[in-house]
Amino acid sequence: MTDSAVSEPETGYRECFYSAQDGLRLYFRDYGNPTSPQTPVLCLGGLTRNSKDFDTLAERLSADGRRILCPDYRGRGRSMTATLSTITRAPMSTTSAICWSRPTSIGSA
User: Fold this and answer.
1) How many Å apart are CA 86 and CA 10, to the nearest integer?
2) Cβ of 33: how many Cβ atoms within 10 Å?
3) Measured between alpha carbons, how far is 100 from 57 in angstroms, rounded to an integer?
4) What is the three-class DSSP state of 31?
5) How would you classify the pairing of strands 4-8 and 13-19?
6) What is the pLDDT of residues 17-58, one digit of tens each?
7) Cβ-based neighbours of 87, under 8 Å, separated by 6 or more
8) What's the pTM?
9) Contact, 80 vs 87, CB < 8 A?
10) Residue 50 CB: number of other CB atoms within 10 A?
């Protein structure tokens, strides 16, 4: 699970951090209701992008309570820096950290 979460009611999301298996501290934005029965959505930005890119979409999709996660890849946004070979591990470690087995994913280039 997450190491810490800070609620940000004026922004519509919670700021969360967790420790990946290799010890890096990674960040994601968590929108909507964490206990929603609806299929959650994982928003994955392009390699040089970050979680902020999905703010408008995530707010819209979470308006009915659906949970939306927008992670920052390793070395991007508020996540710790890593080597290029480990950057692509972030999406899998994010879904593992919150115990999701089958989210719907949305991506951008």
Assistant:
1) 33
2) 13
3) 20
4) strand
5) antiparallel
6) 988 888 889 899 999 999 999 999 999 988 788 999 999 999
7) 47, 73, 74, 75, 76
8) 0.76
9) no
10) 18
| Every domain of the chain and the residues it spans | 4-107
The rounded distance, in Å, linking the Cα atoms of 66 and 59 is 10
Least confident of 9-13, 37-41, 99-103: 99-103
For the chain, give me the number of helices (H) and strands (E)?
A: 3, 6
Residue for token pair 């298996």? 21
Residue type, 77: G
CA angle, residues 32, 66, 7, in degrees to nearest 5: 10
Radius of gyration of the chain (CA): 13
Q: Which CATH number fits domain 4-107: 3.30.300.90, 1.10.10.10, 3.40.50.1820, 3.90.170.10?
A: 3.40.50.1820
Residues in the chain: 109
Is residue 39 within 8 A of residue 101, CB to CB? The reply is no
